[in-house]
TrEMBL record:
Residues 3-161 form the 6-phosphogluconate dehydrogenase NADP-binding domain. The keyword Oxidoreductase applies. The active site is at K170. Residues 164-281 form the 3-hydroxyisobutyrate dehydrogenase-like NAD-binding domain. Keywords: NAD, Oxidoreductase. This is NAD(P)-dependent oxidoreductase. Gene3D superfamilies: N-(1-d-carboxylethyl)-l-norvaline Dehydrogenase, domain 2, NAD(P)-binding Rossmann-like Domain. PANTHER family: 3-HYDROXYISOBUTYRATE DEHYDROGENASE-LIKE 1, MITOCHONDRIAL-RELATED. GO terms for molecular function: NAD binding; NADP binding; oxidoreductase activity. It comes from Humisphaera borealis.
Length: 284
């Protein structure tokens, strides 16, 4: 198929690479052309704008940081909407506002283009290994078309419902991820203070009821002080802002969520925004 991929950061680069490896023709564009050089070397085609990338594509994938970025890529000058047409499917892998997603979908559908919101979970490891969990909201027929492509990038693909439900499900994911991260930080802080062998402690508890992705993947990085980003703190802050907006709309007061948000905000204020979320360990 002719595909387009917009946004080739930590997540988008390997995801687009999997589509290329599967034999599809992929046109790419990004804010910084140098980021896509590995894809161009493997046969991808460069486009100067999202509109140009989408011109001949059947499916367009986007993976950019925040709601304004998606709005710019899809609806702004040189955006996908300039190439929108009947039958075009846009799959947005960004984590953004559910309400903004619905608004953008409504504008694209006026041109015959269908938007699927498909945020992902699994971090850079999942992106590189094509084992991401992908939560999809939107039209069922469009999902059926996109699903075989998504399976090149992810292991667990779930159609969550109508447009916006993928984003809402991702917010559920981020509550679980962030609060579990804090639990791992506090548990390992306790273990360190108690004089335990930290690698052995992770091994001992990781296979039982206390096991989690956060403990297995981030725990070893925490105890060695490896705070290189898989998923950056500043992006976790953005996601927690989206969760806060949604909880306010729903009239919820989630105490653990508030505490972990405070700690991530403190980490950001201390200049740790570009570090991985495991750097929360330094805040506990």
């Amino acid at each position: 198929m002719n595909l387009a991929f917009i946004g080739t950061g930590i997540m988008g680069l390997p995801m687009a690479g999997h589509l290329l490896a599967a034999g599809h023709r992929v046109t790419v564009t990004s804010r910084t052309k140098s980021r896509v050089e590995p894809l161009l070397a493997k046969g991808a085609t460069w486009a100067d704008s999202p509109a140009a990338a989408a011109k001949d594509a059947s499916v367009v994938f986007t993976c950019v940081p925040d709601t304004p970025d998606v709005e710019s890529v899809l609806l702004g000058k040189g955006g996908v909407i300039e190439s929108a047409r009947a039958g075009l499917i846009v799959v947005d892998h960004s984590t953004i506002s559910p309400s903004a997603t619905r608004e953008m979908a409504a504008k694209l559908v006026e041109r015959g283009t269908t938007l699927l919101d498909a945020p992902v979970s699994g971090g850079d490891i999942g992106a590189k290994n094509a084992t991401l969990s992908i939560m999809v909201g939107g039209d069922a027929a469009a999902f059926a078309t996109a699903e075989p492509l998504l399976r090149h990038m992810g292991k667990t693909i779930t159609h969550c419902g109508g447009i916006g439900t993928g984003q809402l499900t991702k917010l559920v994911n981020q509550i679980l991820v962030s609060v579990t991260n804090l639990a791992v930080c506090e548990a390992l802080t306790f273990a360190k203070k108690a004089g335990l062998d930290l690698p052995k402690t992770i091994q001992a508890v990781g296979g039982g009821a206390a096991g989690s992705w956060q403990l297995t993947n981030l725990g070893p990085r925490m105890i060695t002080g490896d705070f290189a980003p898989g998923f950056m703190i500043k992006l976790q802050q953005k996601d927690l802002r989206l969760v806060a907006e949604a909880t306010k709309e729903l009239g919820l007061d989630l105490q653990a969520l508030q505490r972990v948000t405070e700690l991530f905000d403190r980490a950001g204020a201390e200049g740790r925004g570009n570090e991985g979320t495991q750097a929360l360990f330094a805040m506990v």
